[in-house]
Amino acid sequence: MKKRGIGFASIFYGTGYGNGFPDISNAIAELGKDGMVTIYAGATEVGQGAKTILSQIAAEVLGVSEKEINLICEDTSITPDAGTAAASRQTYNTGNAIKIAAENLKEEMIAIAIEKLGLNSSVGLAVKDGSIFLKIYPEKGISFKEIASLVEEKRLRRAGNFTAQTTRMDEDTGQGAPYWPYTFSAYGVEVEVDILTGTVEVLRSVCAQDTGRTINPKLVEGQIDGGFAMGLGYAIYEDLNIQEGKIKNNRLTNYLIPTALDMPEVKKILIEDPESTGPYGAKGIGEPVTIAAAPAILNAIYNAIGIRMKEIPVTPEKLIKALRKKEMEA
Amino acid sequence: MEIKEVFQTKEIKKTLEILEYYQHQCKIIAGGTDLIIQLREGKEKPIALVDISNIEELKEVKETAEWIEIGSAVTFTQIIGISYLQNKLAALVEAAASVGSPQIRNAATIGGNICNASPAADCIPPLLALDAIVVLQRKNIIREMHLEDFITDKGKAALEADELLTKIKFKKLQINQGLGFSKLGFRKALAISKISTAVYIDREQNNRCKEIRIANGALGRCGLREKKVEEYLLEKTLDKTTIHQGGIKLKEEIEKRLHGRSTVAFKKEAVIGVFQKAFKKALECCDTEGSI
């Protein structure tokens, strides 16, 4: 016999290292002799899409397509430190550092353009598609390549760095501003509980995700699918089964993670309320998309069978035990 | 000790010669989804392997007037795709489809599933419920035995060192005969059975149980028949009360058998749900037109 239930959970999560720890990202923007822009930042791409999003930010500043940005993040001998790919901080922190570096480079390129074009000021100048020109008289312009040729050094390079602002919490009162910014997220799920076998199936799910500003919708949606899958594993599958200090489920045949067949469709709602300190208003979403999934599932189980499960994962064994206990009490 | 020879044969005769020569030092490999892991873990240490996955004769499924015969090297993917099994033997197809993942089903064979004799083998309960017969061949001798007698213990089958399991056969189902299967895994794919149950029912016109065979996987040292529950249900009217009582009886059996194991508290309860599903499917199957 199966019973259905619906559950919700919402969270807010402080991104970055926090608690007054200096959270620094460094980046370099460079104009090569060929007129192409290269960004150097030691931000690890671990499949989350950092390279894409960081390229998009630089491209937006310099008025070119993100495909024309050469982003180097893997080689620590030539990239400045941009901190860890952790704490959901790369879009916000390194995004800001790259935005600043690209803006510094652009400022320098505009100064060279003003001099070469014999203009009085930067008013009315556009930076677009690899050249700098006067909007009211587009023939008056200069390409990135020409600008590069006017520079004596091999490359025109400008640095940018960003340090997030947090304060230490007061140890006695707990007061302070330990994180900034905060990202908000909510999940709604519907589950079906088989009360004879203790299995739980998540039938559908919806995620409302605050992004500040969505730099790349497809990547955010991908993060939500991945985050929900991890939350689902956390809630009902992933069991280390530690007995006398030993991990019994020490291989993927018995340490279960959800398969594609176990994943429900996740409807996504992206909520944009630009964060004033974020690059183009963006905030980190990496961890936030996972956090509310498990509590939403446990709330839905409660809604379905009236039992508050207080330990995860909610395996069929635990659920059957709880159901029988409830029957005995009734 | 390490593997010195690997043979790939295209005919049964050649395979039997190799088996006769090497005896216990040779292992038969078909899909290899179990054997390769056992070799890697050092649980099996043959000096020779003989690969039977290219023997056409072993890869055939035949339908005769009375029987279905499945070659031992038939893969689960093959079984899932056979159109004449989809109605009356949907339970067998369901069991085959519940094995591992598409990649595993493409390689793994029904013969391997049987000879490996894992307690959780997905195809063994439906074949036990069908009272399937295994056909075993050695040089100049062919013998048949009931699957139930063939599987003797966890990981053990009554296969002689020079013998090859060539096919599995069972009688086609008629109207008023039905097979049902249900598996409890903890996720929808790549899930090792926690419980799998198959039920065969032969129903009389007056809705009484003329014959019943119940087989379970992962509830003992190997796939096995639940004879006490079968006896209990014989001649009973096939209704909700009977299903319920059958479940309770099965629970008692499991509780006795798994006494002292950490899984008993869960399995004795969950088996009721799995049994009920298989039983209901078997009854529905009784209504499906025969003869397959």
Automatic annotation (TrEMBL), chain A:
One of its GO terms (molecular function) is oxidoreductase activity. Residues 2-264 form the Aldehyde oxidase/xanthine dehydrogenase second molybdopterin binding domain. InterPro entries: Ald_Oxase/xanthine_DH-like (IPR016208), AldOxase/xan_DH_MoCoBD2 (IPR046867), AldOxase/xan_DH_Mopterin-bd_sf (IPR037165). This is Purine hydroxylase beta subunit apoprotein.
UniProtKB/TrEMBL annotation, chain B:
Pfam families: CO_deh_flav_C, FAD_binding_5. Gene3D superfamilies: 3.30.465.10, CO dehydrogenase flavoprotein, C-terminal domain, Uridine Diphospho-n-acetylenolpyruvylglucosamine Reductase, domain 2. InterPro entries: CO_DH_flav_C, CO_DH_flav_C_dom_sf, Diverse_Substr_Oxidored, FAD-bd_PCMH, FAD-bd_PCMH-like_sf, FAD-bd_PCMH_sub1, FAD-bd_PCMH_sub2, Mopterin_DH_FAD-bd. Keywords: FAD, Flavoprotein, Oxidoreductase. GO terms for molecular function: FAD binding; oxidoreductase activity. Residues 1-175 form the FAD-binding PCMH-type domain. This is Purine hydroxylase gamma subunit apoprotein. It comes from Anaerovirgula multivorans.
